[in-house]
Amino acid sequence: MSSLLSLPTYWLRRLSLATVVLVVLGLASEFVYRSALTAQRDRVYAEFQLAAAQHIDTLRTRLSALLDLQELLAKHVDVAGPGSSNEFGQVTRPLMRVHPFISAIVYAEVDARESGVRYPVRYALSDGVWPQPGANLAEEGPHAASAIVAALGSSRTYATPPLASPDDGTPDGIRLFAAAGQGVTAVFMHLNDLAESTLWAGMDPDARDIAFTIVDTTDGPSHANEIYRDTVEDGFQTAYVEAIPFANRNWLVIATPMPTHYQLDPLPSVSRQRYAGWAITLLATLIVAFLQSRNTVIRGHVARRTAELARSNQMLAETNATLEAEIRHRIASEAALRESATLQQAILHSADYAIILTDKDGLVRVFNPAAEQMLGCSAADVVGKRTPAAFIHEDDLARLNQGTGETGFAALLAATQDRDASDPLELDLIQCDGGRLPSSISVSPIVDASHGSISGYLAIAADITHRKAAESRILHLAHFDPLTDLPNRSLLHARLEEALDTAATCKQPLAVLFLDLDRFKYVNDSLGHQAGDALLKAVSGRFRHCVREQDTVARMGGDEFIVVLSDFEGREHAAEVAGRIIEALNAPFEIKGHRLTVTPSIGIAVYPEDGDKADLLIKHADAAMYHAKEQGRNNYQFYERRFSTDVSARLNIENRLRRALEKAEFEVYYQPQVETATGEFIGLEALLRWRDPEHGMVSPQEFIPIAEDSGLIVPIGEWVMRTACQQNQAWRAARLLDVPVAVNLSARQFDEHTLLGTVSRILEDTGLPASRLELELTETLIMRNPEMTADVLDAGKRLGVQISVDDFGTGYSSLAYLKRFPIDRLKIDRSFIADIETEPDDAAIAQTIIAMAHTLRIDVLAEGVETVAQLRMLRNWACSAYQGYLCSHPLPAHEMTALLRGLRAAHMLGLPETGHV
Ligand code: C2E
Ligand code: CA
Ligand code: CA
After folding, report:
1. How far is it, in rounded angstroms, from Cα 750 to Cα 787?
2. Is the peptide bond before 608 cis (omega within 30 degrees of 0)?
């Protein structure tokens, strides 16, 4: 009975246990399956979202670059005016090249009449037929017209919705308008081309995994207007949306994943997991149902299996998570790789310097088109076959590997690595046909980030032929007189110093002959400068024949020449040479159909009797020459001591100068220094004027040398500095101007040990901040005593004053040498600027100076700019500032105040505030 009763209870227990196992395990496998599926979908969506965000980001960056360019173009027109059609083309063509979706760039004017406002196109750079110069931009319809009006009324860029293009009728033309100068600039672009080149960047249509739609929501969500749509067969409902503001418009970009690329159905592995789970569940249930009562061992077994199953399920889920992270990482790094490869190709092909990449043994792997062109061989002949060292002359290599003991390519690397980056290695590369190419080259190792070992080398070389040529031209011009090709004043000084050294060591005499042509001025005045120049050339040719190899004939300027006789036998020898020169000029010259005769007056000073310094010998030879003139010209005179007392004329000026300071006959004028790009004032130069009661205005060029000789320049210079600082502080206090005032310094002032004391006292007395004072020193002054100059300038810099080099280019100093001094700015001498329009040599020199100064990070200012054409050239060469009559003559303080007031008033009225007056 008891067994009968217990029978159903027994089955019930058995069944319920099996059911419990079935339900629990079934639920568990179903749960694991669901979460694996969710993880799969999340992963796919994350991939899609990442890709869509990247594409959209490219679009956003491109649009903002486009707006920046449009703004830059408008600013350019504001500042420089629209210029000529050609110039407009020069500025806009590169923009079109960078953005292929731009179909036209236009500058149009505003033409307001009673019949309505027109916007006739003045310049158009277009790859279609629309718009041509003269066309009215408003004709494109109300959208275009209202965007133009909006742009004119603000400083922002305005965009239209897509318009039908008059070129080919495609309805996706967007116009961007910005106010510029007296009109508007307009950029025309195609939305389809924009989408193709940014969202897809040329990707094959079959490979596209996302479809984009762009909606314009500028007029609110209810007026949303779909302006672009990729063709899709059947997208998912899932989408990713980002808003992109573009000029005045708001765009929404909607990305939809393509079903062909993003898989949402369960992956086979996930499904398999579910089947396996259920199979195990069923098995377990069966085992429980049939064996539960009989075998507890088996029950325990099942329990273990269950635990194992749960563990393996968990492991599966964990694997899914790692897999997901790994995929995400791979997508990101592949995108970065793609981007950097495209960038690399673009750099290699567009660079105008040679780029040579080698493996770690130095064998060439990459040889870009510029390298092919520079070295005259094709990449095919070089890649895998040669090393960069193969293009370097063995002598150079031998020179470079000194000390390192390295050979070949490694030597080059070692030599370029030790150097300062601002001072790259310059040498001649040997071209494939054996020719030489001056170039500057740098080599860097490529380090494998994963091992830290060197995996290759990158050599970059630039062709510096033009710069080398310009440098040697500068060098020559610096030492030789361009007209006669004789050594000039500075080379003469150097040679004379050298000859004096030799003469002193060898206890030999030396003679300096000062030659001046009698009445040469009349040739110039009556027959013109060209005849005068031709005569000087012919005369100097004859001079050269009168002396020996080792003697120097130099031109001091005008009709003055100097002959230095070294290694000479005595006064008779000097007299003989002077006699020969006089004789040589006896025969007339045939100049432009005239028979001309000139005679010289010659003064002779002999070392050591008449002086032991170059300057003194020249000065005494000069005095003797004046005496020769007094003696009736066409003769020579030796220097005698009494000549030096013949200075009454100079004394006279000197006395009047002395008085001038007491009687307040001096005045300081100010000339603006302005930025070439904007016309804004960046400084003033203080220039001294002397109102002599007897002779009226005397030019500083006349009286400053006398003031320098007599030492009067020290008190006068101090007065100039004090006056200029006071005045500048007054303008600052009146809020008219806040720029440095530049004061010229003479050598004499520099000799005074008190210079810095004077400067700081004046700054303190006037209250002018040190940064608002600039000291101008000539190049010759700096080079006269470089050590002392460097000390004084360093102290000046510590004080905080600005330092500039005046009349740069007239003496000779290499820019690299000048860089040792704490110099803020170079002022290119007027004589170079005067002829840049007509003399290609002068233009090349000025351009080279500017470029070299940029490299050394020194500011450049061009002096004596008188024409718009000069300014334009300087601006093209990125010369940052200029000074000259084009902007303003030097003005007395009260006129400068009036000018500054006017500018300030214009500024307050919002009128254009250029410094041009
Ligand atoms: P600088 O320092 O080279 O000054 C520039 C000279 O060029 C000034 O002549 C100026 O009037 C002139 N100038 C400016 N723009 C133009 C232009 O577009 N075309 C031409 N043809 N000339 C232009 P300025 O005032 O006659 O002075 C002559 C020289 O006298 C100065 O040359 C400077 O060396 C010296 N100087 C002037 N004031 C002082 C001073 O206070 N102290 C010292 N030590 N020297 C001074
Ligand atoms: Ca100056
Ligand atoms: Ca100057």
Report:
1. 13
2. yes
Topology adopted by domain 664-909: TIM Barrel (3.20.20)
- 47-257: what CATH class? alpha beta
Q: Hey, whose CA ends up nearest to atom 25 of ligand 1? A: 687
The pLDDT of residue 759:
95
All residue ranges of the chain with pLDDT < 70 are: 1-15, 201-202, 232-237, 291-302, 401-411, 415-424, 644-650, 751-752, 810-816, 910-917
| Beta partners for residue 437, in sequence order | 429
Q: How many whole angstroms from its chain centre is CA 875?
A: 12
| CA proximity to 535, closest of 548, 522, 547, 551 | 522
The backbone torsions φ and ψ at residue 799, rounded to the nearest 5 degrees and listed phi first, read -70, -30
Q: What is the pLDDT of residues 226-243, one digit of tens each?
A: 888 877 666 556 788 888
- Protein residue whose Cα sits closest to atom 12 of ligand 1: 864
Q: How far apart are CA 579 and CA 633, in angstroms?
A: 13
| Measured distance CA(42)–CA(786) in Å, rounded | 73
The pLDDT value given to residue 917 = 37
| CB-ligand 1 contact for 672 (6 Å cutoff) | no
Comparing CA positions, the residue from 570, 529, 567 lying closest to residue 548 is: 567
Query: If we measure between CA atoms, which residue out of 607, 637, 492 comes closest to residue 551?
Result: 492
What contacts 711, CB < 8 A, 6 or more positions away? Answer: 748
3-state DSSP assignment of residue 411: helix
Q: Which pLDDT score is estimated for 916?
A: 43
The two three-digit tokens of residue 682, written as one number? 């960046």
The yes-or-no answer to whether 47-257 and 355-470 have a common fold is yes
The whole-number pLDDT of residue 419 equals 59
- Choose which CATH entry (3.40.50.20, 1.10.10.60, 3.30.40.10, 3.30.70.270) describes domain 480-641: 3.30.70.270
Q: What global pTM score does this model have? A: 0.42
What confidence score (pLDDT) does residue 324 get? Answer: 84
> Which protein residue has the closest C-alpha to ligand 1 atom 43?
744
Model confidence pLDDT, tens digit, residues 566-615: 877 778 888 999 999 999 988 888 888 888 888 899 999 998 888 889 99
Query: What is the C-alpha to C-alpha distance for residues 304 and 317, in angstroms, rounded to an integer?
Result: 20
Helices (H), 132-190: 142-152
Ligand 1: which residue has its CA nearest to atom 37? 687
Kindly state if the Cβ of 135 falls inside 6 Å of ligand 1: no
Q: Indicate whether residue 701 lines ligand 1 (CB < 6 A).
A: yes
Looking at ligand 1, which residue's alpha carbon is closest to its atom 17?
Answer: 864
Q: Which residues pair with 673 in a beta bridge?
A: 683
Cis peptide upstream of residue 8 (ω within 30 degrees of 0): no
Which one, of 832, 834, 835, lies nearest residue 848 by Cα?
Answer: 832
With the most atoms of ligand 1 within 8 angstroms of its CB, the residue from 666, 685, 687 to mutate is 687
Pocket test for ligand 1, best of 667, 710, 716, 744 (most atoms within 8 A of CB): 744
CA of 546 to the centre of ligand 1 (A): 39
Q: Which two tokens stand for residue 885?
A: 């009559």
| 687 within ligand 1 shell (Cβ under 6 A) | yes
Domain ranges of the chain: 47-257, 293-350, 355-470, 480-641, 664-909
Backbone angles phi and psi of 237, in degrees to 5: -70, -35
Question: Where does 81-190 have alpha helices with state H?
Answer: 85-98, 142-152
Supply the pLDDT for residue 352: 79
885 Cβ inside 6 Å of ligand 1: yes
Ligand that comes closest to the CA of residue 861 = 3
- Please tell me the residue having the least CA distance from ligand 1 atom 21: 864
User: Which stretches within 767-909 are classed as H helix?
Assistant: 779-784, 786-799, 815-818, 830-833, 840-855, 868-876, 893-908
Kindly state if the Cβ of 866 falls inside 6 Å of ligand 1: yes
Determine the distance separating the centroid of ligand 3 and the alpha carbon of 562, expressed in angstroms.
26
Nearest ligand, CA 671 = 1
CATH of domain 355-470: 3.30.450.20
